[in-house]
Amino acid sequence: GRWLAVGGGGYGLVRVVPRAWTHLIAAALGRDIDPMAPLPDTWRERVRTMAPSVDLPQTMGDGGDVDYPAWDGPGGSLAGTDGTDRALERVDSAIIATRRAVFPLLGLDPEDPRD
C-alpha cells in the first residue's frame, strides 16, 4: 500500500499544521506521540524568527480529550467478520469505481497499475 495524505486548509499554519502532520506520520508508522510531549526548542526558535507575532504552542496537543468512541458505522465490525477487511474492501471498491469513471476522460487506462 501507498498513502496519499492531503490537508483540508482553513487551520493555523503554525499552531496546527506541523503538529497535525507529525501525529499523522507517527500514526502511519504505528507510533504514538504523547499530546503532552513538549515541542522541540529548536523548532520553536526557528518558527519564532519567521512568525514572531504568533503565540506558539508548547506541546504536541492542546490539552483536550483525545479519547474517542470506536466507530460502529458502515464498515464496522460484525460478529464473525473482520471490520478492517470489510472497510478496506469498500475503500478499494470506491477507488476502482472512481478510476473507471474518471481515468478514460483523461486518456488513462483505469486498469493499468502504473496510472
Q: Structural class of the secondary elements? A: mainly alpha
Number of strands: 0
Shape: extended
What number is the mean pLDDT? Answer: 85
* SSE succession: HHH
Q: Major sheet, described briefly?
A: none
| Rg on CA atoms, Å | 20 Å
Number of domains: 2
Would you give an account of this structure?
The protein is 37% helix and 0% strand. The protein contains three helices and no strands. The chain has two domains: 10-63, no CATH class; 75-115, no CATH class. The protein has 115 residues and is an all-alpha fold. It has helices at residues 17-28, 41-50, 83-102.
Jot down its keywords:
115 residues; mainly alpha; 2 domains
In summary, what is this structure?
With 115 residues, the chain is mainly α. It has helices at residues 17-28, 41-50, 83-102. It contains 3 helices and no strands.
